[in-house]
Design goal:
This protein is an alpha/beta fold and about 280 residues long. Helix content is about 55%, strand content about 15%. An eight-stranded mixed β-sheet has the order 3-2-1-4-5-6-7-8. Helix 2 links the parallel strand 2 (about 35) and strand 3 (about 55). Helix 4 (about 80-85) crosses helix 5 (about 105-110) and helix 8 packs across helix 9 (about 200-220). The chain is elongated. The chain starts with 7 loop residues before the first strand and ends with a helix.
Length: about 280
C-alpha cells in the first residue's frame, strides 16, 4: 500500500493534527484515507469542510481500520484516552505515532496495554505552516518499514530527524520545541531597538521579521555553517562587527547555553510527572 492510501486515524483534531492533515493532503494523500476523531462538533465540521477527511466523535470507531494511529491529544488527558482506546485497536496492531509533548514511550505502551510499535515525536509550532523541526524516536517494537512510514507521515509537517535515545527528545524539546520563542524574542528585541533608533513601529516590525526570514533561508540554502555565514557578513571594522562585539560582551552564547539547559531540565521534570500515572 502506498503512503497516499495508508489509513491514518488522528486521535485529537487540534492544531498539530490539522497541520499534519493539511501537509499530507498537499503531498497527495487521499483525504478519504484520513480520519480525525475529536469530541468537538465544530472542530469536526471544520476539518471535514476544509480537507474532505472523515471525522468521528468515537475514538474506537476511528481506529477500527487504521494502519496508523496518531495520538494528538493534550498530555494531561493521554492516560484516559489511551486506556479507553486499548481494547479497540485492530489486530495486527497498527503503528502508533505520538505527537504529545513529554509523554514517554513506556507510559504510552503501558496505557495501551503492552508492547506497541511506537514512534514518539517532538514537533514544534512551525509545523502549523509545514516548516516544523521534528525529532523522532522509535521503540524496539517498531520495524524499519514502520520507521520509514512514520518519517514519511511526519515529514508533511517539516524537517524530521531521528535521535538515538528517547531521552534525547528532551534536548530536542529545549532546542527546537521551545526554539521558536527564542527567535520571536530576538525579533521582538530587534524591533524595539529599531523603534528606539527612530523607525516607525510597522517598518521596524517588518524589517525585523523579514531579516529573520532571509537569514534562515540563507542558512537552509547554504552548505556553510551559521558561524561561517556570520563571519562572511561581518566586515572588519564595520557596523556588524561593532554590534556583534556588544552581544559577545553581554554573554549571548553562555546565556543561550543556560537557557537551553534550563529548558531541557524542565522537559525532563515534565516527562517524569506525566509518566507517573503509567
Amino acid at each position: 500500500m502506498s503512503l497516499s492510501q495508508t489509513r491514518i486515524a488522528f486521535i485529537g483534531g487540534g492544531n498539530m493534527a490539522r497541520s499534519l492533515v493539511a501537509g499530507l493532503i498537499a503531498d497527495g494523500h487521499e483525504p478519504g484515507a484520513l480520519t480525525v476523531s475529536d469530541p468537538l462538533a465544530e472542530m469536526r465540521s471544520k476539518l471535514a469542510e476544509s480537507y474532505g477527511v472523515h471525522t468521528n466523535d468515537d475514538n474506537a470507531a476511528a481506529v477500527a481500520a487504521a494502519d496508523v494511529v496518531v495520538l494528538a491529544v493534550k498530555p494531561q488527558v493521554a492516560p484516559g484516552v489511551c486506556r479507553a482506546l486499548a481494547p479497540h485497536l485492530p489486530r495486527p496492531a497498527p503503528l502508533v505515532i505520538s505527537v504529545m509533548a513529554g509523554v514517554t514511550e513506556a507510559a504510552i505502551c503501558a496505557w495501551l496495554g503492552g508492547e506497541t510499535a511506537l514512534v514518539r515525536s517532538m514537533p514544534n509550532t512551525p509545523v502549523l505552516v509545514q516548516s516544523g523541526a521534528i525529532g523522532l524516536h522509535a521503540n524496539a517494537a517498531t520495524s524499519p518499514a514502520q520507521r520509514n512510514l512514520a518519517e514519511e507521515i511526519l515529514r508533511a509537517g517539516g524537517l524530521t530527524r531521528w535521535v538515538d535515545a528517547e531521552t534525547d527528545l528532551d534536548a530536542v524539546t529545549a532546542v527546537s520545541g521551545s526554539g521558536p520563542a527564542y527567535f520571536f524574542l530576538v525579533m521582538e528585541a530587534l524591533e524595539q531597538a529599531a523603534v528606539a533608533e527612530g523607525l516607525d513601529a510597522e517598518t521596524a516590525r517588518l524589517l525585523a521579521i523579514q531579516t529573520a526570514l532571509g537569514a534562515a533561508r540563507m542558512a537552509v540554502a547554504s552548505e556553510e555553517s551559521p558561524a561561517d555565514l556570520r563571519r562572511r557578513v561581518t566586515s572588519p571594522g564595520g557596523t556588524t562587527e561593532r554590534a556583534l562585539g556588544v552581544l559577545a560582551d553581554g554573554g549571548l552564547e553562555p546565556l543561550m547555553a543556560r537557557a537551553v539547559a534550563a529548558a531541557r531540565a524542565r522537559a525532563e521534570e515534565l516527562s517524569q510527572l506525566l509518566g507517573a500515572d503509567a
